[in-house]
Amino acid sequence: MSQARRQEKKQREELRQAMQELDAIRCELDAAYRSFDAVTDPDALGACIFEIGALRARYSLALRQLRAKLL
Asked: N or C: which end of the chain has fewer CB within 10 A?
C-alpha cells in the first residue's frame, strides 16, 4: 500500500472517530436534557444544568476539532 493511501486511510479513520465522538456526546446531551425535564429536586436540577453545560462545551470542542480536520 502506498504512503498516500495509508495517509488517506488514516484520515478517514480519524474523521470516523471524530464523528462517533460527536454522536456519543449528542446522546449524552439528550439524556442530560431528559434528566433535567424529569427531576424536581433543586440539587438535582443544579447537577443537570452543570452537566448540560459541560456536555455543550465538549460538543463545541469536538465540533471545532472535526472542522479543523476537514480543512
From this structure: C
Rounded Cα–Cα distance for residues 22 and 11 (Å): 17
Cα–Cα distances (Å) from 35 to 5, 26, 31, 38, in that order, read 45, 14, 6, 5
| Grid coordinates belonging to 49 | 444544568
Helical pair 3-38 and 42-70, crossing angle rounded to 10 deg: 160
The phi-psi region of residue 70 (left if phi > 0; otherwise alpha if psi is between -120 and 50; otherwise beta) is: alpha
Q: What is the pLDDT of residues 16-56, one digit of tens each?
A: 999 999 999 999 999 999 999 999 999 999 999 999 999 99
